[in-house]
Amino acid sequence: MYIFFPVAATPRVFCPRGVHPSGMSLESDIADLWTRKQEGLTAADATDDHLATLDDFLAALEAGDVRAAEKSGDEWEANEWVKQGILLNFGLRETEAREYGDVAYHDVLPLRETADLAERGTRNTPDGTVIRRGAYVGSDAILMSPAFVNIGAHVGDGTLVDSCDTVGSCAQIGDDVKLGANTLIGGVLEPVEDAPVIVEDGVSLGAGCRVTSGFVVGENSVVGENTLLTPRIPVYDLVEEEVLYGELPPERRAFTRFVESSVADHDLIDGGAYKPAVVATSVEEETLEATEREDALRE
C-alpha cells in the first residue's frame, strides 16, 4: 500500500493559464506532441525537451491552471487538448521502478509532491492516501486513507474525500463536496472529446455511491447511500416531472428505487422483473440541517 508523506516541493514558475515561462503556448506544444505521437513517436524516441513539456503540463494541472473540463454556460465541456496531454504522459514515458516512502512500485509517473497541500490547509491521514501526479487538490480539503486521486482529477476547496474513495482520472469535484466512504467517482479519459464525471459545488454523496460515465451531479444536491448515477439509469425528477439521463439537477435529494422492467414479459422470467432507477425530489430542510451538522463536526 502506498503511504502519503509530505515531501519538499520543487520550485516552479507558474505563468498565466496554459503558457510556458518561455512564452510558448502549452496547448500548442501538447498539440504538436500529439500529432507526432499519431505519426509514430514512441517513449523510446522521446527527448528531454518532450519530457520537459510533459512535466510542465503536469505542473499546470497540479496548480489548477489547466483542467480536463470546464463549465461553459450551463454545460460542462471537455478540454480535449488537456486529455491528450494526459494520454501523452502514458504514451511517451517508460515504466520505471519507483519508491515512495518504503513502498516499491512500477509506473510511468511518480506520485504527486504534496508539500503545497499543507501550506494551503489541506490535511490527510497516513497509510494509503495516494495522489497521482497531475491531480489538483484545493485548499482546506480532507483526504482520509485509504483514498486514491488519479491524474487529471480536480478536487475543490473544502472537499472531503473519505476512506476507500476513488476519484477517477479527469473527474471534476467542486468546492465543499462530501464524498461518503467507499464512493467511486469514475474516470473518463477516452475518448478525449467526452466530458468526465462532474460533481458540482456543495454536493453530498452518501457512502457507497457510484458516479460514472460522465454523469453530472448538480450543485447542492444530496444523494442517498449506495446510489448508482450513470447515464444508463433514468433519473425521475419529481420536481420538474421529467425523466433525465446523465444528469441530476441542482438542489435535489436523490435515492435509488426500482421500477418495472419490460423483460418481465419474456418467457424465461417467471413473475415480475424490476430495474434500478433514481428518484429526485427537492432537498428538504431537515436534510440540509443534517449536512450542516456534519460541517460543524469537521470544523
Number of helices: 5
**Overall average residue pLDDT:** 89
Please report which band the strand proportion falls in: under 5%, 5-15%, 15-25%, 25-35%, 35-45% or over 45%.
25-35%
Q: Number of domains in the coordinates?
A: 2
Description of the molecule:
This protein is an alpha/beta fold. The protein has 2 domains: 199 residues, UDP N-Acetylglucosamine Acyltransferase, domain 1 (3 Solenoid); 80 residues, no CATH class. Helices cover 20% and strands 27% of the residues. The protein contains 5 helices and 26 strands. The strands form 5 sheets. Strands 5-8-11-14-17-20-25-26-22-23 form a 10-stranded mixed β-sheet, with helices on one face. Strands 6-9-12-15-18-21 form a 6-stranded parallel β-sheet, with no helix packed on it. A 6-stranded parallel β-sheet has the order 7-10-13-16-19-24. Strand 22 and strand 23 form a beta hairpin. The N terminus is likely disordered.
Provide key terms for this protein:
UDP N-Acetylglucosamine Acyltransferase, domain 1; 10-stranded mixed β-sheet; 2 domains; disordered N terminus; 299 residues; 6-stranded parallel β-sheet; alpha/beta
